[in-house]
């Protein structure tokens, strides 16, 4: 284990073996959805609800 | 192996996120609300002859204050969870061999890189603003700038790590570290070249400075918590693995005897 995946390349290979494409897809979709919702959504209801958070995180808004 | 890394990152994220949520509830929510109200009062005082209500549309929230406070706290927790999962779960899994240092040091270095990527680099162009500030650039442009600087920040951090890794063996740690800092100058160049976002605020400068300080402190605290929790969890796991190897080793020698 220590020798086979002790490079970045090795880790990528290992992840490719361990995960199915479906798992990767779902994972990436979840991350994208959460990240987008927290950082960039401008829809008024969502935006106003997270108003204080966006300011506290220093994320640009309105 | 990937799952155990991801789990550890998410755990660190939950710990840091909960504390950041507490920070949201106790410090950020009341302060932002105070600044919001103060800004509005000043706004009305300046445009006193305007009709009441029509002018304050900018900050008449679509939702009640309780909702804003509640959702903001939850968002804070989710923010920690997201950063923990993505940076300390996924990114750490892939980059661990390339991050300089040993043990917990890697977590803290990754936290610095994460802070630069998610907050530091974008803040060079768009510094954190208190509520009620009029900004020159339209929101769309600012979102693109913010996102673009996040990408630039991530690339610069990767470049710095790559440069350090290349130079370490030939030139020693200190020279490698000094040269690895240079790529961060690229961010400053980008920030100088990007369009200027002039701001207009009716808040007193002391309050603005205090709010900016709170924002920077809050994010730095979040990354410190993430790194601390992650380093601790990582060490615990390595200790456990080491002790398992030890016991299996001693078992083997015992049976061999």
Q: Which runs of chain A of at least 5 residues are low in confidence (pLDDT < 50)?
A: none
Instruction: Report the sheet-strand fraction of chain A.
Output: under 5%
Supply Rg of chain A: 18 Å
Largest interface: A-B, 36 and 54 residues
Report on the structure:
The complex is a heterodimer of chains A (62) and B (257). Helices cover 68% and strands 0% of the residues of chain A. The longest helix of chain A has 19 residues, at 21-39. The model of chain A has no long low-confidence stretch (mean pLDDT 84). Chain A is an all-alpha fold and 62 residues long. With 257 residues, chain B is an all-alpha fold. Chain B has one domain. In chain B, 79% of the residues lie in helices and 2% in strands. Chain B is built from 7 helices and 2 strands. Chain B has helices at 2-46, 65-95, 104-125, 139-171, 173-181, 184-193, 205-256, and strands at 134-135, 199-200. A two-stranded antiparallel ribbon of chain B has the order 1-2. In chain B, helix 1 runs antiparallel to helix 7 (205-256). The longest helix of chain B is centred in the last third of the chain and has 52 residues, at 205-256. Residues 47-58 of chain B have low confidence and may be disordered. The interface between A and B is large, with 36 and 54 residues.
